[in-house]
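ping. complex inputs:
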Amino acid sequence: MGEKEVLQGLKDMMKAVEADEAAFQNLALQLFQYQYRHNPPYRRFCQSRGRTPRIVKDWWEIPAVPMRAFKEATLSCNDPAEAEAVFMTSGTTRPGKRGKHVHPTLDIYNRSMLRNFRQRFMGARDVLSMGILFPRPETLPHSSLAHYLSLAVREFGGEHSSYLVDGEEVHFSRLLHFLREAERSGEPCALLGASFHFVHVMDFLEQEGLSFRLPEGSRILDTGGLKGQSRHVDPDVFYAGLAARFGVPRHRCINMYGLTELSTQFYDDGNETVPSKKSGPYWIRTRVIDPVSGEDVPYGETGVLVHYDLANVHSVLAVMTEDWGKAVEGGFILMGRAEGAEARGCSLAAEEFLRSSKG
Amino acid sequence: MEMWETAGYHPGLGETEVQWREQTFEQGGERRRVRVPVPDEKGLQRLVEVVRKNRQTDLASLSVSEVVHRIDQTVERLLDRNHPLRRRMEDWLPVVTGLAPDVIRTGLTASMKTFRKPQLLRWLAEDFGNPAMLDSFQPRVNGGFTRAISPHLLVHIWSGNVPGIPLWSLVSGLLVRSAQIGKVASAEPLMAGWFAQALEEVDPKLARCLAVVGWQGGDESRERLLFQEAEVVSAYGSNETLEAIQSRIPVTTRFLPHGHRFGLALVGKEALNPARVADVLRKAARDVAIYDQQGCYSPHCFYVEKGGVLSPRQFARMLAHELDIMQIRYPRRTLSPREIGEWNRWNQQAEWRALEGEEAEWIGGDGRFWSVAYEETGDASLLPTCLNRAVLVSAVNDLEEVAGRIAPFRAYLQTAGIAASSRRMFQLADRLAETGITRICALGHMTVPSSGWHHDGRPVLKDLVRLVDVEPSAEVAAEPHNPYSE
Amino acid sequence: MDLKSQRVLVTGGSRGIGAAIARAFARQGAAVAVNYRENREAAEATVRSCRQFGGDALPVQADVTDEQEVRRMSEHIFAEWGALDVVINNAFRPYPFDPEGRKPFSRLEWKDYRDQLEGVLTGVYHVTQSVLPQMQAKKSGSIVNIVTDLIARPTVPYHEYTTAKSAVVGFTRNLAAEMGAYGIRINCVAPGLVYPTDSSRHTKESIREAIADQTPLRRIATPEDVTGPVLFLASDYSRFMTGQILYVDGGLVMS
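pong. complex structure:
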């Protein structure tokens, strides 16, 4: 099975309305075989784990690569020098090394993003004026989020769409202009961007004593954590704030959960209540595992999320995250990362050493 | 039914005069609750006055040998496995700390043994030469006299779950006859209070010179108040925690910070033959497994010399098996999600490094409660490890290279365990002493410091006191004023 | 432990006891490499019957007495599966078990002994050498060497054959003593007369009945009888056993 056949299978699958279990299983195993053959570090990993294509019989047995590995190795089936894009993680946990996700072509990534975005964010609309609270891809060429947002604007953005961030700072006068124009036009619009920028914007609006009532049908999409980028805000307070400042009801405030290491995103259906349920399209599946034993936790119990993303054609389809969560009907609840282990004794641990030698 | 235990010891402050903070501990399906006394600022002030006054009336007048005798009687009780307090320790500490019952039992006995009379006397002699210096001015060899004056109030901030730490602190404070107030660690809030209770059985007056309480770590107003009153503050914790504490301590108060550190071990090629290696491995694995590497003396890395009958790589593989065996007798603590996160990140790094080539290896994986990384290129990026029984085995051509390898960790080094011939052991000791290592011991002893050790390179008791000199000139100058002077 | 996804090599796995062992592992969900020397068709038949159980099986050719061939075989298996968890040393040089036609000691030459030692011990040695490093690197592995109950009770003194098998027992125990430190276990299974196999074809009905008469369980072994103890020694159920011999002969030998 070569790259072409796998790609075709995947494109066919993405065209389908719903894919059945067997289609996912078949394609996952084919893709695994392809990645095993063309991705040497991954092959060594599978061999050392004793999970090679000859041994693996079901998609959930495909060895999942930890996010850490994207920092240690180049996980690509193709020559990274000829890649269309290399997305990198921001590297907040460990200084120095950033995880790399090599995309020889963005064809599949874009298809996956667009189809999913239309369905989960656009509602019934084809076009919305978009205010983007994140830098352009030219500013951040290795940011998957910058690419994601530019794709959204390019495919679905109305003529008044605008980037509201200059360099890495919010351009407040342009923001106010966008919001006022939207209010005046009466046409629904969308604000999309990094969660921490929304915090900065809300702080600014509060300071200025401003709030808006964006036209009926307007939506907000926020993504990414706040860690290290803004003050901590409780999610409930955050969405209440969005609703109050922009007049967008919480059920139209969508949170997107994406990882640089994946090619498919998860969305919730609004944040009327938090935490919200996240789910993805049928070409991505998620297992919740016990990180000590590596086995599935009993349904509904807390564990670490492992994603099997068929759109990750050129890297590795199975990725073990550092995010905790639990399965619920039709999706999962994301509980976030467990970082900064508290010292139990008087011994120095790896991450404390890194923190202290950094600061 | 859920079991309750009350932590702390607060003479002069009634049950209702403190608030109680509840803590729940769970281990192996068992759930226990501890309540910790939390005095408010007024209460804390009262405690300061009470222990200080009690010290003045009941402790300051005791001779050092009388104090030694009472500590000896106290630990004698705690060494008795049938004593109710000892039974409570063996019953509660495994659940509270998560450490295996065998680790707790042997660890308690080992640390109590270091507080028996002969050991205490040796410790005093170690630090003071002539311990009578604590009672009165003692003549100096070069003329004049010196006396050691105890701090009127010694404050301890404990952290972590290694049960021996509060004992060390309290015994040191007693030996120098100081009033003491200790803040318990949330990871192990019980041991200090139990020790005070045992002391009370021996001598209630002496016990009432101690107070053991708790509060939310970093509580600025309580800590400022207490540090203002203290003469010496001794604290355990990460450098971040210690810096925060330091910022609240008046410059006139002596601060003794005990930061997080780690240990390592050196194995010479002479120990790497099939006949000797079994013993070395057993002891190495014990040093790792006891306290799950949570002690500042616990080894993170084994530097293993090439050129023996067995290779460093074989040593790594055999160490893996010894660690596996330890799981049966000394099962590892259940890790918190955060610890699992750190464990996984370190192991993933080690695993992916090993996949890169032949110079590295990693033995670990799902369902294993230990992991061994091996490398032979001198790469130290896996140090320190993520704790909880993760070790790096690093191959060296000559153990002499180790000093250079550990230089980047200078400020964080503590104990080095050595398995090598006598001559080389002393040679290595010289080299290691230059690097920041402050304790050299045999493998198998890394987690059991001998009594009177120079913790982090300091004379523990001497650091607590103030030395007062009577210079020869004073003696000479006094002479003419004597009535019998001619 | 369940044997699911365990990677197993059975030497001499195409026929007889070896094939029965291969199938038994496959039934438990293990991946089985079926080693053969010449009879490719038999090996492929065994592989096919193994795959019916859903797991992987591969035929792997090698004369186990040839170091080069063994190394090539191991590398092939490692490339496909990453490593081996279990090795069953079952291959042996063909030997006619004919109580009436056997050579008495007076007619045996040293070459007869040497042939058997070469055929049995050399194979065990090469295979073990080629798989041990990767077992050590993952700190786990189980090796089971198939010997014979004749080592304890030479009902018929097949001198050279039984002496060679006894050497395998010595080999096993020494290796077990050393490999315990790496968490690797090595044991033996010692079947009595097994029928039907190619080797026991020559054994007359009357002899088989005579042996059955002396056997507490009143019959001789089938190839399938041997598989249980082999699976047991390969699995975690025997995790604290090494250097042992399990006799599978209906109680003929009691030790």
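The longest strand of chain B covers residues 19-27.
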